[in-house]
C-alpha cells in the first residue's frame, strides 16, 4: 500500500518540475541548466500482464540541447527486488523514448538511502552485463534548512529537504522556517506546499508539530489541511461544550460516553448532542435519536 510520505517524495517533482536543478546541485552533479521540463506518463507497462509504473517521470530539456529522462522513485525501505525493477525502467525508457535515462531515488532514512545508492551489477561476476547507479536524495545529503532566508532561495528544495529530514533533531526549526516563509508566499503556491509537507510527514511525531504550526502561523489560509484543522478545532470546542453542560447539570458521564463525545469529529452531530444535553436525563440519552 502506497503511503502518503511515498507520494510526497516524488509528487513534489510533478508540482515543481524544475526541482531537479536544485537537487542535482546539492548532490554535486553537474548538469546543464534546464530550459524546460515535461511531466510524462508514468506507466511503463508492456503488452505482458506485468504492470510496472515509475513513481514520477520527467523529460528534462537542457541548454546543450541534450534532453534527458528523469525517473523519480520514492523508497521507504530496503527491497532486494527493486534494483532489477529499476534496471528494467532504465532499459525500457531508453528503448521507448531514445533518450538517456536517469534514476533519482528519494528516501527518508539514512540506511535505506545508503542501500539505494549502491552500484548494482547484473550478469555473471566474470563479465557484468550492466551496472545500475542511481542518484539518491535523503537525510544523508539533503541540506538541513532552518534559516527562512535559505528557504526563500528555493522553496521546492526546502520542501523536499524537510520531507527527507522527518526524524532530524532540528525538525521543529526546519518546519518553523517553512511556515515563516509560507506566511508571505502567495496562497496558490503555498497551499500545495502545505499539503506536500503534511503528506511527507505521514504519521510521524513531526506531523503533529506541522499541524500546530499551520494552525497558528497559517490560520488565514484555506488549504485542505487548514480547513481540516479548523473543523477539528470547531469539533473540539463543541465536544467541550457538551461535556460542560452535562457536568453543570450534575449528570454522570461514563468513560465510554466521554470518549464518544471527544472523538467525534463532526461539528453538526456535536451541536445536536449539545441541544440534547440540556434536557437529557442521562449522558447516554443524548445519543438516543441518532
Classify the beta-strand content into a percent band: 5-15%
Give the overall average pLDDT.
84
Low-confidence stretches: none
Radius of gyration: 25 Å
Percent of residues in helices comes to 40-55%
In total, the number of domains comes to 3
Q: Could you give the distance between the termini?
A: 35 Å
Annotation field: number of helices: 12
Succession of helices and strands: HHEEEHEHEEEHHHHHHHH
Helices and strands: which structural class? alpha/beta
- Strand arrangement within the widest β-sheet reads 1-2-3-4-7
User: Tally of extended strands?
Assistant: 7
**The biggest beta sheet, please?**
5 strands, mixed
Shape: elongated
What do these coordinates show?
With 290 residues, this protein is an alpha/beta fold. It has three domains: 4-137, no CATH class; 148-221, no CATH class; 228-287, no CATH class. It is built from twelve helices and seven strands. It has helices at residues 4-15, 19-26, 82-97, 110-116, 148-153, 155-164, 171-182, 187-201, 205-217, 224-248, 255-262, 267-277, and strands spanning 34-40, 56-62, 68-75, 100-107, 120-122, 130-132, 135-137. The strands form two sheets. A five-stranded mixed β-sheet has the order 1-2-3-4-7. Strand 3 (68-75), helix 3 and strand 4 (100-107) form a beta-alpha-beta unit. Helix 1 packs antiparallel against helix 6 (155-164), helix 8 runs antiparallel to helix 9 and helix 10 (224-248) runs parallel beside helix 12. The two termini are 35 Å apart. The model has no long low-confidence stretch (mean pLDDT 84).
Amino acid at each position: 500500500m502506497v503511503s502518503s510520505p511515498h507520494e510526497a517524495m516524488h509528487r513534489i517533482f510533478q508540482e515543481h518540475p524544475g526541482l531537479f536543478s536544485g537537487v542535482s546541485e546539492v548532490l554535486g552533479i553537474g548538469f546543464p541548466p534546464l530550459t524546460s521540463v515535461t511531466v510524462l506518463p508514468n506507466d511503463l507497462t508492456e503488452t505482458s500482464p506485468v504492470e510496472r509504473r515509475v513513481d514520477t517521470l520527467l523529460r528534462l530539456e537542457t541548454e546543450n540541447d541534450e534532453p534527458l529522462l528523469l525517473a523519480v522513485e520514492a523508497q521507504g525501505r530496503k527491497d532486494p527486488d527493486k534494483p532489477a525493477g529499476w534496471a528494467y525502467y532504465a532499459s525500457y525508457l531508453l528503448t521507448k523514448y531514445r533518450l538517456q535515462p536517469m534514476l533519482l531515488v528519494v528516501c527518508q532514512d539514512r540506511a535505506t538511502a545508503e542501500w539505494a545508492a549502491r552500484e548494482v551489477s547484473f550478469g555473471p561476476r566474470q563479465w557484468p552485463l550492466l551496472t545500475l547507479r542511481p542518484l539518491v536524495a535523503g537525510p544523508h545529503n539533503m541540506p538541513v534548512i532552518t534559516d527562512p532566508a535559505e528557504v526563500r532561495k528555493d522553496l521546492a528544495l526546502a520542501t523536499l529537504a524537510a520531507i527527507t529530514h522527518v526524524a532530524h533533531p532540528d525538525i521543529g526549526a526546519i518546519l518553523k522556517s517553512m511556515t515563516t516563509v509560507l506566511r508571505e508566499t502567495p496562497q496558490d503556491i503555498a497551499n500545495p506546499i502545505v499539503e506536500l509537507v503534511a503528506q511527507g510527514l505521514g504519521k510521524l511525531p513531526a506531523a503533529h508539530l506541522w499541524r500546530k504550526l499551520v494552525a497558528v502561523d497559517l490560520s488565514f489560509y484555506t488549504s485542505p489541511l487548514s480547513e481540516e484543522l479548523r473543523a477539528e478545532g470547531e469539533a473540539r470546542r463543541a465536544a467541550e461544550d457538551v461535556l460542560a453542560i452535562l457536568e453543570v447539570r450534575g449528570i454522570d458521564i461514563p468513560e465510554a460516553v466521554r470518549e464518544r463525545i471527544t472523538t467525534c469529529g463532526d461539528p453538526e452531530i456535536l451541536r445536536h448532542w449539545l441541544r440534547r444535553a440540556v434536557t437529557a436525563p442521562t449522558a447516554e440519552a443524548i445519543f438516543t435519536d441518532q
